[in-house]
Write a structure and sequence with these properties.
Distance between the termini: 95 Å
Radius of gyration: 30 Å
Helix content: 10-25%
Oligomer: single chain
Structural class: alpha/beta
Shape: elongated
């Protein structure tokens, strides 16, 4: 059976106190909406994302999936109904999810579909997700009959003390046949203090029609909503813990796991060692046997097998550190291909450059790749020795086997096996320092 999902992402996130739409706040380097989309893509055939007015960044984040604008924010039921025209004639099941519930797993979504009967389950007219949080707080309570069928959802403000004692709480996510869901949504009323149309109000409508409503329980860590910076930080901690565990179970060593920060797409090979306080931004792959030492920051780069990075190194997007290459302390690489066995061990900036196999880049070397208007490349061949404190004014090329003298400022290409130097001749004026000091003292009186 085909199935579609409506993802509600129109919320402003007032409690976030942010100009950024709530659904775009990142967890492990990826917006909340993108986390939810990734979970849904393997479970549902079609996705429709409901956004608010003037949210082009959300529409871009939702691409290539369809979007629809909720012009007036009249509640979650009203928001879900905005997707009806895009699913006109759709004969399968439709689930409604929230972008600020970004950590729902594909496995939980499959169980939701199975409870609805789409994947061999007993089948129900309506299935919803529920949880048993440690602190039920202000969650709506899921009320069940003696057979475990859901009879209604009681909002906390309307619940009696006995109802508030019920531990099963509504997570807001539900799934039903498209025709039924949209009919119920059109029947929801806004007879409440806020004057809004609430999604959970479809439950009593389904029960009134004699439909069986079931609750699928899932862990709080998956289903809790994110409405504030504090809750965002808690979700980040949950995701980081899972990513660290996955890395170690995959064969990597984290010497102090709690201090390492991963992105959602970090890939570590076997026998990789990661020191304390390493931060992985999006798009990083570290191959087998490489070592990332403490306090390094990596983003958008590849570290090949057996390479050594850090401590205190920064690898920026477009960087490819070759097999057995070394990137040492306080070295920054941006859009650099560092060849096999090449070394840049100290205090160096290389940008928009290629460095050949076996080349040694001395301390304090800088590639001057930006002239204020455009970027220019530096090409350093294999087996080159770049002397300490060499400044390479791009565009420039150093041939294989070339050497540069320490302290040189080079503006022209260097031929293979040549020695290049460009620095002022040292001159000495005897007694000039003492004369200078005496003159200064006399000026001061």
């Amino acid at each position: 059976m085909n199935a579609a999902a409506i993802l509600l992402a129109a919320g402003l996130g007032t409690r976030m106190k942010s100009r950024l739409p709530k659904a775009l706040h990142p967890i492990a380097g990826r917006p909340m909406l993108s986390h939810l989309i990734a979970a849904c893509e393997g479970v549902f055939d079609r996705l429709v994302v409901v956004v608010g007015p003037d949210m082009p960044a959300l529409e871009r984040a939702a691409a290539p999936h369809a979007t629809v604008v909720q012009a007036e924010r009249l509640g979650t039921g009203h928001a879900a109904l905005q997707a009806a025209p895009l699913l006109d004639g759709f004969a399968g099941d439709v689930a409604v999810l929230y972008a600020d519930n970004p950590l729902i797993s594909p496995a939980t979504l499959r169980r939701l579909r199975a409870a609805r009967g789409a994947e061999g389950g007993e089948g129900a007219g309506l299935a919803l997700l529920a949880m048993r949080p440690e602190d039920p707080a202000k969650y709506g309570r899921v009320m069940q009959d003696g057979s475990g069928n859901v009879t209604r959802i009681v909002e906390y403000a309307d619940a009696t003390e006995a109802e508030r004692a019920v531990g099963l709480c509504n997570a807001g996510v539900l799934c039903a046949p498209a025709a039924d869901l949209f009919r119920w949504l059109r029947g929801v009323r806004n007879e409440n203090r806020a004057g809004e149309y609430y999604l959970p109000d479809v439950v009593p409508l389904a029960v009134a029609e004699g439909k069986r409503v079931v609750a699928v329980e899932a862990p709080e860590a998956e289903l809790r909503g994110i409405n504030s910076r504090v809750e965002l930080a808690a979700a980040e901690a949950t995701v980081q813990q899972a990513l660290r565990r996955a890395a170690m179970e995959g064969g990597a060593t984290l010497t102090w796991p709690e201090s390492v920060v991963f992105s959602h797409d970090t890939r570590l090979g076997q026998d990789v060692t990661v020191g304390p306080h390493v931060v992985f931004g999006p798009g990083v792959t570290v191959e087998d046997g490489a070592e990332i030492r403490a306090f390094s920051h990596l983003e958008g780069c590849v570290v090949r097998a057996g390479a050594l990075v850090g401590p205190y190194a920064r690898l920026r997007p477009g960087t490819d550190v070759g097999p057995a290459a070394h990137v040492g302390n306080f070295v920054e690489l941006k859009n650099v291909a560092l060849g096999q066995g090449a070394k840049a061990n100290h205090l160096t900036y290389l940008g928009d450059a290629s460095v050949g196999a076996g080349t040694n880049v001395g301390a304090g070397t800088i590639t001057c790749n930006y002239d204020g208007f455009a970027k220019h490349r530096t090409e350093i061949g294999a087996g080159v020795f770049v002397g300490s404190h060499t400044t390479l004014i791009a565009p420039i090329a150093l041939g294989d086997g070339a050497m540069t003298a320490a302290g040189s400022v080079l503006t022209r290409d260097v031929a293979p096996d040549a020695l290049a130097f460009a620095r002022a001749r040292a001159a000495e004026k005897p007694g000039a320092a003492a004369a200078f000091r005496a003159a200064r003292r006399k000026e001061k009186g």
